[in-house]
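tool_call: predict_structure(chain=1)
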Amino acid sequence: MDDMLQAWLEALSSLAEEDLGVQNRARDEALQQSRELIRLCSNAIRAGHRGEWDQAETLLAEADEVGRAMQTLLAPYPELYYAGYTQDALKELVEARVTLRLISHRDLPSVEEAGIPLNTYLNGVCEAASELRRRCLDLLRQEEFDEAERLLAAMDAIYEVLMSIGYPDAITRGLRRRVDQLRGVLERTRGDLTSTLQMVRLRHALQTYGRIPKSE
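tool_result:
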């Protein structure tokens, strides 16, 4: 091996060790952050379903902080920023934000406010709509039908908009599949609400005509 080739290879090896080593450390840290972000978002949503709003907001604030740190860490490395695990974690953050605001009847976060790529944001919104089914079922058990109908209408509206976005999966990151899943969730939820309302009306009619005793 001549001296020129050896020097070139040594320089190449040194550059690879330096550059790729930094990226690998960033990747390892981002993986940890993505797992923490998903955990915080999941716990925030569960707290919201339980009506523990202070806890939900605390967890969501922690998730926002982790999300911003991960985005800052990966900003110099687009190939890592747009990797599946990174965008999945950011999708969970959108899902948590949108779910909690829909449940609590507050203004929804804009794409600009979220600071998250649009295709990831859309997938998070879709999963938030599916998450509302759990809240609707809780409301049906509590016979809070007006609120259940409000959230069902929100699910329906989200579905209609997302269904109209007909771009390829390579651009939307699999949005069509999630929208198809949302359709099934929406139909089941509408069926549950309809059957529950019918049973309640029947019970009230029977109570009115004395066929069964009225509830205390």
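agent: The chain has two domains: 20-103, 117-216. Proceeding to next step.
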